[in-house]
Design brief:
GO molecular function, one term: nucleic acid binding
Distance between the termini: 37 Å
Shape: globular
CATH superfamily of the largest domain: Response regulator
Radius of gyration: 21 Å
CATH architecture of the largest domain: 3-Layer(aba) Sandwich
Strand content: 15-25%
Protein name: Protein argonaute PNH1-like
Low-confidence stretches: none
Helix content: 25-40%
Pfam families: Piwi
Organism: Trifolium medium
CATH topology of the largest domain: Rossmann fold
């Protein structure tokens, strides 16, 4: 990571998604200048930012985008997330302008935790996992699965149920999970097709 030249440490290589911010100053200029666009131009704006990044980074892909949204009304958030994740393969974090302008430490800390996980880091690790003390799990490589089905409110007769499955990916810590979500018939509790979900 490259930090501002006024800090005592100008560069640092994170280890397992962790790093210490002592003696570091944030870089003053982002790689890509701040860019704004109208909500109905989100796809065009994101492609512009991605192409600008390719030029500035010498052909390297942009890895992460922070989007500051004016409000949470309308389809802007969903459109931005869909385009970033499905069209561009880009990790993104959205923030609301009203919280960013206030510089609320708690809000920014929560955003930092989200960014850390999205970029492959861990926010917590079970102490027992690090010391190999979780019965059965620590003894042999293990995947922990979780599954749930959520249903529409009572009285709704048509909405599909939503099934979700997660699985741990980082034995022995078991703190990173991949997940899949799918729709299934209304009020169906059993996950119909676990392999296609």
């Amino acid at each position: 990571m490259k930090y501002h030249d006024t800090g005592r440490e100008k560069e640092y290589l994170p280890q397992v998604g962790q790093w210490n911010m002592m003696n570091k100053e944030f870089s003053q200029e982002p790689v890509i200048p701040v860019y704004s666009a109208r909500p109905d131009q989100v796809k065009k704006a994101l492609k512009y930012v991605q192409n600008t990044a390719l030029d500035k980074l010498g052909g390297k892909e942009l890895e992460f985008l922070i989007a500051i949204l004016p409000d949470n009304n309308g389809s802007l958030y969903g459109d931005l997330k869909r385009i970033c994740e499905t069209d561009l393969g880009l990790i993104s974090q959205c923030c609301l302008a009203k919280y960013v302008i206030k510089i609320n430490r708690q809000y920014l800390s929560n955003v930092a935790l989200k960014i850390n996980v999205k970029m492959g880091g861990r926010n917590t690790v079970l102490l027992d996992a690090l010391s190999w003390k979780i019965p059965l799990v620590s003894d042999i490589p293990t995947i922990i699965f979780g599954a749930d089905v959520t249903h529409a409110e009572s009285g709704d007769d048509s909405c599909p149920s939503i099934a979700a499955v997660v699985a741990s990916q980082d034995w022995p810590e078991v703190t990173k999970y991949a997940g899949l979500v799918c729709a299934q018939p209304h009020r169906e509790e059993l996950i119909q097709d676990l392999f296609k979900c």
